[in-house]
Design a protein that fits this description.
single chain; 475 residues; alpha/beta; seven-stranded mixed β-sheet; five-stranded mixed β-sheet; globular
């Protein structure tokens, strides 16, 4: 298994082990910062002094005034409070309060949008291109529609690293009465705070402790607590703050940002190597996301005909910890909404995100291990029995029918890939599948391999709700 401090830990985007400075700061603060800082006794005052010092340090680092910053129990809670509070603060007297967001926002934003819609609110999702980037003009057109109260746009995507046009959107929304919320977490590790009235971050991303989120609300911004709160954090949170953890988060933020430009350049060079070498070393591998306008420490690539969980397990055997947006896990059949929105293959995906402890030797070892790991994971897929194939009968689609019902990704794609060489160029075949990921995966596979997805529709009678995907061989 991968050690927390191992240089083979390639999952920095999911959180880092505590920065050494954070450990020291937490240990120093725990003796005097355990009490509720709202209390007027000596122990409470000592906690309050530590909390105020941490707030001032973070505010100075992020170009904020101390009263513009509040600490939340986690990054996701900070993001949820930012979205729902901005909606509440900008809702008109007639009750209109629409929400606009990109299709690749963090799942916390999507859950907040669902919660808002269930209570009668309007929600509009703006689609992205194949790199995962939203067009600023399209986003502004949706956000400035009458009745919109809040717009949410991440600084950079957490799955593929693509940056979003936040500065252009913020400038376009200035003075519009629409509150802009930015999920700035990953960008703050290497870049600058966004020019948005509300933004959030998670301390885990820079080596701070879990359980500390940042909520920045600039002066003059309309924001109202969407849930019952008490006096904590100026009425923006509930319960006594974890002062030692906040002190540790502040210390690690300052420490991690001291050489951020140098680290960004170094890690970007390592990522460039992965973007170039992985498709060369691994057959049927494609790099996702923007090539240039991206986070410097993150890359995602997809490998055809492999189960993402199996590949992660193989890499873990070699002491590499990575992440995957694959839908093929034991606890969910839902494909990654980010990859679906991009039109990418949702299975066989690997996200590599680096930290300052990774060097060239680690990248070389990863590239040496990866091809065999992919080959072994593919062997585990291909030993499965092939789907039944037959010519369409009465009431069934014309041409060859591949029955992939009950087979989860990447098996429907693999079934299609196996069957395609058996039909002449120009001929059609139909895949019958009930996997929720099949719709996006089969479409992505056809684009990647130069085939044509003619249509998608309900399966024939008796197919138990499966979908039928008609494909024409073009090459």
């Amino acid at each position: 298994m991968v050690s927390q401090t191992s240089s083979g830990y390639f999952d920095a985007a999911a959180g880092l082990p505590l920065h050494p400075v954070a450990i020291e700061a937490w240990q120093a603060a725990v003796a005097d910062g355990w009490a509720d800082p709202a209390r007027v006794h000596g122990a409470g005052r000592r906690s309050a002094l530590l909390l105020d010092a941490a707030r001032e340090a973070v505010a100075a680092e992020l170009d904020l005034q101390p009263d513009e910053l509040s600490f939340q129990p986690s990054g996701p809670l900070a993001l949820q409070a930012a979205v729902l509070g901005t909606l509440a603060g900008n809702r008109r007297r007639d009750g209109a309060g629409g929400l606009v967001h990109s299709a690749v926002e963090h799942s916390t934003v999507l859950r907040a949008a669902t919660w808002h819609a269930e209570r009668g609110g309007q929600v509009h999702q703006v689609e992205v291109d194949e790199t995962g980037q939203v067009a600023a003009a399209a986003f502004l057109a949706a956000a400035t529609t009458t009745g919109t109260a809040a717009a949410v746009l991440q600084a950079a995507n957490h799955e593929v690293g693509t940056r979003q046009p936040v500065a252009e959107v913020a400038a376009g929304l200035a003075g519009s009465g629409v509150g802009l919320v930015v999920d700035a977490g990953h960008e703050l590790v290497f870049g600058e705070p966004p020019s948005a009235p509300v933004f959030t971050a998670d301390a885990r991303l820079w080596g701070g402790p879990a359980g500390v989120g940042l909520l920045a609300i600039r002066r003059g911004t309309r924001w109202r607590a969407p849930m019952p709160v008490d006096e904590a954090e100026s009425g923006r949170a509930l319960g006594a703050p974890n002062v030692p953890a906040i002190v540790a988060a502040a210390a690690s933020l300052r420490a991690s940002r001291q050489d951020r430009q140098q680290q960004a350049g170094r890690l970007s060079g390592l990522i460039d190597q992965l973007r170039r070498r992985v498709p060369e070393l691994v057959p049927d591998a494609v790099v996702l996301g923007a090539a240039a306008d991206r986070l410097p420490h993150l890359v995602t690539f997809c490998c055809l005909y492999v189960d993402g969980l199996s590949l992660l397990t193989e890499l873990d055997r070699h002491d590499f910890a990575v992440s995957s947006g694959s839908s093929c896990t034991s606890d969910t059949l839902t494909p990654s909404h980010v990859l679906v929105a991009m039109g990418a293959l949702t299975g066989g995906n690997v996200r590599v995100s680096l930290h300052r402890g990774v060097d060239q030797a680690d990248i070389d070892r990863f590239l040496a291990v990866l091809p065999a790991a992919v080959a072994r994971a593919r062997e585990g897929v291909t030993i499965n029995a092939p789907a039944a194939r037959h010519r369409g009968g009465p009431g069934e689609p014309a041409g060859q029918l591949i029955d992939s019902r009950g087979r989860r990704c990447p098996l429907p794609v693999l079934d299609l890939a196996r069957a395609l060489p058996d039909v002449p160029v120009g001929a059609e075949l139909t895949v019958l599948a009930d996997d929720p990921a099949a719709a996006s995966d089969l479409a992505a596979w056809c684009r990647m391999t130069g085939q044509q997805l003619i249509s998608t529709g309900p399966g024939p009678a008796g197919s138990d709700g499966a979908r039928a995907y008609r494909v024409r061989r073009l090459r």
